[in-house]
Design goal:
By secondary structure, the chain is mainly α. Helix content is 72%, strand content 0%.
């Protein structure tokens, strides 16, 4: 056997771990698995990938980052759901012409210019709604939500 072949055979065998250092080898192996799982989770960058990482490595190196990403995805989902709800409320109101006219009249009376009072929720109306919401400490969305309508009708 040539010397090069002998060296290759020697290096291809697993290196024995001295007694007392087995925990360190296992720890290095666990860390590399942890890092590989984290790299996979960040590559996928989805709520499910971070949940999967946390289940697989509850005490992992990147558990804080995984928790933060999960919270961010949940906030995004909640915001998207809230946006859809506001859009529905606004559209329902805008299809009710007497109610839409009432909102525009009230905004105009309070000094917020909704444009022509025609019962159409256009850009001018949305701008007036945002200004009203800002002045009353409401969430500024430009949509006439139930909360905005309630405050508006009290004035």
């Amino acid at each position: 056997m040539s010397e090069a072949a002998h060296d290759q055979q020697r290096w291809s065998r697993s290196v024995p771990v001295p007694e007392g250092q087995a925990w360190q080898a296992q720890s290095n192996y666990s860390r590399s698995r942890d890092r590989a799982a984290w790299n996979e989770a960040t590559y996928e960058d989805s709520l499910l990938s971070y949940i999967k990482y946390r289940k697989q490595f509850p005490n992992g190196l990147f558990v804080k980052e995984a928790k933060a990403r999960i919270r961010a995805f949940e906030r995004l989902r909640d915001n998207r759901d809230r946006y859809q709800q506001m859009l529905i409320e606004d559209r329902v109101l805008s299809k009710n012409k007497p109610a839409a006219l009432d909102v525009e009249r009230r905004l105009s009376r309070l000094g917020f210019d909704p444009g022509p009072i025609d019962g159409k929720f256009d850009q001018d109306t949305q701008r007036a709604v945002r200004q009203f919401q800002r002045s009353r400490g409401l969430p500024v969305t430009g949509f006439v939500t139930k909360e905005t309508r309630r405050v508006l009708t009290r004035l």
